[in-house]
Design goal:
By secondary structure, the protein is of the alpha+beta class. The chain contains eight helices and ten strands. The strands form two sheets. Strands 1, 2, 3, 4 and 5 form a five-stranded antiparallel β-sheet that branches.
């Protein structure tokens, strides 16, 4: 696209202080609006379309916490043999008419190239956008240590929590995180909670509790600013659902495990702990 258009579209960024920065010439603009919003009968009711700006990044800047819809702030994808990153704050909402005019330029020198993401990339992108509204944005410094710690524990959790009477059924409904605050600096107490099905046996509850305790200890070792919370009102690290009150659960944030499924090409995302 020509520079004038890139400057104009940049003024529509989500974050106002970024609106003076021209969109890079080599950026990929990916449509993230829903089909129904794009093809609505009356564009006067929904005149804009939303684009995610994927900029090139260096290989050393690729981080697993920003891949597979784990982070709700950033998404990193490898597109056309190049590592790229999109940030929520840099998305733009532009008039549909403006985008249509650019696409209709045909073979003109400034006409943009049109590419299609893979099925896996499209699903990851839609999950990333959905998680923006469904999941809490945990501090980056917490994700940096929590992601590898929990990933390492997932095989053990799945093994200990699988129902022997029904293959593929886990006693774990979801994993939750408690943080005393969401700041990127300062000391912070934290805790975890595996919410178990009502029929989870005692031995499963104890085994899951022990595994999550090891996860907590690893987080403490690798990020000393985080420490296991001493809040006496919090439940144990693994509890059956009938033992947890709404008030207790309201103190936690549901941990996003979709990235584990997506990293393995599995589109069956949700609260269940995925199989290793």
């Amino acid at each position: 696209m020509d520079e004038a258009t890139r400057k104009e579209w940049a003024t529509q960024r989500s974050e106002s202080r970024l609106r003076e920065r021209t969109i890079r010439e080599d950026a990929l603009l990916v449509v993230v609006s829903q089909d129904c919003d794009i093809a609505c009968r009356d564009d006067t009711q929904d005149p804009c379309i939303e684009l995610a700006i994927f900029n090139r990044i260096r290989s050393r800047d690729v981080h697993e916490g920003n891949q597979f819809a784990h982070s709700v702030r950033k998404l990193q994808l490898r597109i056309h043999d190049a590592e790229r990153e999109a940030k929520v704050r840099e998305t733009v909402r532009i008039p549909k008419k403006s985008l249509c005019e650019i696409l209709l330029q045909g073979s003109a020198p400034v006409a943009p190239e049109i590419h299609k993401l893979t099925d896996a990339q499209r699903y990851t992108l839609s999950t990333w956008r959905a998680n923006r509204y469904q999941r809490a944005a945990l501090p980056d410094r917490f994700n940096v240590v929590m992601t590898p710690a929990l990933q390492a524990a997932l095989p053990g959790l799945q093994s200990r929590a699988e129902d022997p009477q029904e293959a593929g059924r886990s006693y774990i409904r979801a994993i939750y995180v408690y943080l005393e605050h969401m700041e990127e600096q300062g000391m912070c107490g934290f805790s975890l909670l595996a919410l178990l099905r009502s029929d989870a046996p005692d031995e499963v509850r104890l085994a899951v509790d022990e595994i999550l305790e090891e996860v907590c200890l690893r987080v403490e070792r690798e990020m000393p600013q985080y420490h296991l919370s001493e809040n006496g009102d919090l439940p144990a690290l693994a509890e059956r659902e009938q033992s947890i009150t709404i008030d207790q659960l309201g103190q936690y944030h549901k941990y996003n495990l979709d990235f584990v499924s997506l990293s393995r090409g599995d589109t069956d995302t949700g609260s269940k702990v995925p199989s290793p």
